[in-house]
Amino acid sequence: MTLKEQFASALAAARTGAPWAWEAIYRDLAGVVGGYLRGHGAPDVEDLVSETFLSVAKDIHSFNGDEDAFRSWVFTIAHRRLQDAWRVHGRRVPVADGEDAESRVEREWHGNVEDEAMASMSTVEVEALIGHLTAAQRDVILLRVIGDLSVAQTAHVLNTSEGAVRALQNRALRDLRKVLGDDA
Amino acid sequence: MTRNENGPLSDDRGEMENNTPFAERDADSAVSGRVPANPELVPVQRALSQMKEALVMEPTTEVISAHAAQFAAAVPPTTPIPQARHASPWRRRASAAVAVALVSGFGVAGAAAANEAAPGDALYVVDQALERIHIFDGGTHERLNEADRLVSQGDVEGALELAGDALESDGEVEAATGLHNAALAVALNSSGDDVRARVSSMLQWMAGEDSRGAEFGAQVSERARQISGNENANQNANQNANENANENANQNANQNQNANQNANQNQNANQNANQNANANANANQNANTNQNTNGDANTNQNTNGDANTNQNTNGDANGTGDGTCTGDGTCTGTGQVDANANTSTYTNTYTNENANGRGVGKP
């Protein structure tokens, strides 16, 4: 879901502080930015999303570029807010009950893959799945899957190379494949 | 079970016996919700898609509009902050040279007069140059006094902008934003004497206030809001003062008030847009008028510059002129030659000749 041809006019209006433009931008991105932060186990997702968009609003005059660049920029800010939050609250390890993430994945997840009727995972299942990834892999996977960012955009947000993103993505997919078992 | 050559050779945990990357296209599919060609990645893609569904929660319309107003209010005004004061050393040196020349040129009394200057005065540039080299050190206080002088001259909007700029360069962002908003509100609404009096008293209070910081900023934006005249803002401010002794609570209340102001600005913006639309409509009507009223060639040219319309007009006139004007002393040649052309002179000449009783019919 993107603003496409409306983006340029929305951005111009957003710079003048027009509420309708901010509604369009927020409607477009708040869900996925929140999803990204939630996937990382952020302490207070709603607050962080608000902080992210407040930063975007305050710095909107410094942004130049198209919608893809804007999306990368917003996620860059969200990523920084997340790191700030971790600095304050400490990183929350997405494993509950003292149970090892991997064994929980097997318990919670194994066998459910085939269940086509299942609409989405429970929070526990998501945490279990993501908990299996390293922090760097998690960054890449969440930006690619939740943020719909390209490899280049992801590399830009994480301030790394496209090659590094591809390598992390590949390792993450391979690890997930292993965790999810042989069902195909 | 897969027999893909890229697949893992064994499932032993902890071993990285196969690091052959998945095909780029398959990996891209797996993370972007498309079914990958490589069957190994199908369960991964499915799991990731379900994870996305679980994590992404779209906000409700109420949440969207409440937040959007807050973000819109947080956008800083586009007016450029004057940076010349901290600009290049060359600029400072040039200012110093100008100032020295000025002081030696028109004396201390003249410089003192310059120091009294408010924006718009001829001497204001001199005043600023002197401040730049710390003669009459024009800090925020002096800027505020200048703003007050502007109010007494009737330029309320300019005064608020100037005071806002001064506080902004002083780091008083909240107060500055409040003043800029107030200036906008004053510009949009007609400003009466009471507004002027309120602005003046606020500026005097600000100039006399030595302390800066959150409380100062909050008070300034509070007063600015009263000037911009919003009933909601006043109500909120009162509740705030009565109920809350808590900084966070105050901040929230202020944000809401800002939101109200912006809503008002938005209405004004819409009105402007409508006016523009009307202007365009008028332009179109003009074009139409030109096409319809063919008789008035000269008027059309002058008002609208619409060449096409005038051509039509003259085409008609020529049509009439064809049969009647041939052989006449003044009119013959033109009548024939211009039958398909577009000069308005033809119409005029022809009319005059008719009035004179000449040129009708063949000679």
Structure in words:
Chain A is mainly alpha-helical. Helices cover 67% and strands 0% of the residues of chain A. Chain A folds into 2 domains: 4-89, RNA polymerase sigma factor, region 2, helix turn helix motif (Rna Polymerase Sigma Factor, Chain: A), CATH 1.10.1740; 101-180, Winged helix-like DNA-binding domain superfamily/Winged helix DNA-binding domain (Arc Repressor Mutant, subunit A, Orthogonal Bundle). Chain A has helices at 7-15, 19-39, 45-58, 67-89, 101-109, 123-131, 135-145, 151-158, 162-180. The longest helix of chain A has 23 residues, at 67-89. By secondary structure, chain B is an all-alpha fold. Among the domains of chain B are: 24-54, no CATH class; 87-118 and 126-137, no CATH class; 139-245 and 253-259, no CATH class; 297-355, no CATH class. Chain B has helices spanning 24-31, 42-55, 61-74, 89-115, 124-132, 140-152, 156-169, 173-188, 193-208, 214-228, 231-243, 247-292, 297-304, 307-325, 332-337, 344-355. In chain B, α14 (307-325) crosses α16. The radius of gyration of chain B is 37 Å and the shape is elongated. The model of chain B is unreliable at 1-17 and 230-363 (pLDDT under 50). The interface between A and B is large, with 62 and 54 residues.
